[in-house]
């Protein structure tokens, strides 16, 4: 029965694996093509900013670069900037999930990738092009997030990307746009009240995530890695693991899909989400931070929360931006 509940979603995942070749963009036409992370290299202006220094600052990992004043109009982007190069190319190339419900997942009815993370990217696209749909999606796993940014094959990554000091050493982050916490998903009849009650049990988390790393703090738990969060869900529904651990945003999507599952426990970590940007493109980070500031003040952030994350409860105040980082 439980396997049947996720049948439509599983079918969508099969589609996720079938990625199209890198598509060009045409003026006046939305770009929403999907290519694999291993597709052709994207041209990103790496000379517009300076690299983040590893010594720079990890006293506060959520501190980012302050915007350079009000956002420029799409037709008035600074000459020679990363944003102007993206505009001239015709699309914003973004690394996303296509199987993380509520954040970035393919709708099995429309075939479109949608969610909270995706809507943030639509806002960035609108600020660059005056068109929210000039996005070219590259579907990536959690473990590929750093790789595609370090290689410069995407302009931005929005994939439940926790900001931390180690990652700042090789990439740059926007200011925090969502604050999540790590919890666990168990069967509805489980007596576990949190992760501390799962000693001797098998708990799944995706490769390349802070949630998998944190399982090392619980040596009595058998950590089971999977390629994606949905890989964990498949193992859970097949009875091959007893629980899944991950950010509450992600687990809420799974619980909404599976009536035989529930999310339990207090958060055992803070997971501040930021948009990942290649380290050299400091001007792009500042620009994105301007977009996020606008979203916080004009109600866009709250409307997006209500649409995608309302299952977690009433919308909180958006995370306050923290600045002070210098190149």
Automatic annotation (TrEMBL):
Q: Name one Pfam family in it.
A: SBP_bac_3
| One of the GO biological process terms | amino acid transport
Domain Solute-binding protein family 3/N-terminal, chain residue ranges per copy: 91-312
UniProtKB keywords: Signal, Transport
The record's section on SUPFAM superfamilies has:
Periplasmic binding protein-like II (SSF53850)
Q: Could you name the domain of life of the organism this protein comes from?
A: Bacteria
This protein's GO cellular component annotations are: extracellular region; outer membrane-bounded periplasmic space
Note the InterPro entries from the entry.
Bact_solute-bind_prot3, Solute-binding_3/MltF_N
- Tell me the leader sequence span: 1-20
Kindly give the PROSITE patterns that the UniProt entry links to this protein: PROKAR_LIPOPROTEIN
Q: Where are the transmembrane segments?
A: none
Q: Which family does it belong to?
A: Belongs to the bacterial solute-binding protein 3 family.
The record ties this protein, via PANTHER family, to: ABC TRANSPORTER GLUTAMINE-BINDING PROTEIN GLNH, AMINO ACID ABC TRANSPORTER PERMEASE
Q: Under what name is this protein listed?
A: Glutamate ABC transporter substrate-binding protein
């Amino acid at each position: 029965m439980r396997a049947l509940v996720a049948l439509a979603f599983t079918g969508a995942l099969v589609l996720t694996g079938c990625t199209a070749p890198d598509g060009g963009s045409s003026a006046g036409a939305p770009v929403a093509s999907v290519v694999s992370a291993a597709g052709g290299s994207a041209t990103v202006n790496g000379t517009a900013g300076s690299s983040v220094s590893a010594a720079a600052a990890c006293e506060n990992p959520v501190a980012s670069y302050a915007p350079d004043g009000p956002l420029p109009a799409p037709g008035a982007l600074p000459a020679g900037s990363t944003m102007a190069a993206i505009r001239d190319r015709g699309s914003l190339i973004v690394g996303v999930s296509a199987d993380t419900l509520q954040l970035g997942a393919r709708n099995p009815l429309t075939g479109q990738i949608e969610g909270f993370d995706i809507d943030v990217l639509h806002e960035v696209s609108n600020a660059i092009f005056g068109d929210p749909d000039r996005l070219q999606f590259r579907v990536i796993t959690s473990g590929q997030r750093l790789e595609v940014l370090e290689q410069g094959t995407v302009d931005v990554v929005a994939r439940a990307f926790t900001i931390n000091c180690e990652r700042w050493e090789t990439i740059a982050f926007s200011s925090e746009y969502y604050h999540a916490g790590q919890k666990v998903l168990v069967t509805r009849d489980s007596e576990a009240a949190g992760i501390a009650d799962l000693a001797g049990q098998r708990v799944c988390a995706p490769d390349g995530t802070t949630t998998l790393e944190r399982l090392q703090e619980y040596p009595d738990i058998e950590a089971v890695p999977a390629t994606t969060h949905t890989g964990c869900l498949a193992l859970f529904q097949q009875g091959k693991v007893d629980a899944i651990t991950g950010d509450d945003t992600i687990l809420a999507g799974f619980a909404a899909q599976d009536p035989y599952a529930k999310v339990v426990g207090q958060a055992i970590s803070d997971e501040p989400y930021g948009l990942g940007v290649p380290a050299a493109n400091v001007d792009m980070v500042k620009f994105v931070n301007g977009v996020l500031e606008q979203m916080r003040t004009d109600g866009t952030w709250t409307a997006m929360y209500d649409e995608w994350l309302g299952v977690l409860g009433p919308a909180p105040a958006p995370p306050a931006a923290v600045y002070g980082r210098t190149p």
